[in-house]
Design goal:
single chain; 212 residues; mainly beta; Jelly Rolls
Length: 212
Amino acid sequence: MNKCHGVALALTAALVMTAAGAALADVTGSDFDALPVGPYPFGGSPRFLEGADPGKVKVIPAPAVGGGAPIPPGAMGNVLCIDNIQPVPGTRMIVEFDFECEINPAGVCLLKYDFSGAAWVDGAGFDVFIDPEGEYDNTDATWSPPVVIAPSTIYGSNTEGTGVCNGSGHTVAFLVRPGAIMYIDNLRTECVEGTVGSRTSTWGAVKSIYRE
């Protein structure tokens, strides 16, 4: 199978969120356009926490997503590819980023990212954790796109509410299960005025699923 490539479009997801007074903040190591194409140069943030081969986490040009898979929405330069498609059953892969948000007791910190993913095994897919503190099996702390039937792909934009805007010390972890691949771009945070509950992401209707 292709490394760091996807398959044809199967289902579509979309998120709508509105907020006033947005202020941009930082996700350390997420400027993929500034990195050379090739294996991600780990060392700080992000961190390769778990898996068999960190060399399968790569920076690739957005047009190289290929294979009929959609490019993550808004991607124009490079994207991050986490490739856990393996010829034999493997282990999950986890990549974790540090991020910060402005200090504002009246504000809410939001993490935003664009993504696409492909599943080659039934039930494969990926999970996204905010401030997991090592709890990567806690389904109450994760957001999981509905990839069930393989082969299939999913893409969209997502926003995660992470709580109050209280500066640094936050992490986001992307867990890619065996038989799946994930592309990430435009990973950023915003501190917005007002009250927004934690984990406020919502999904549009699933458009279609297919099986070869």
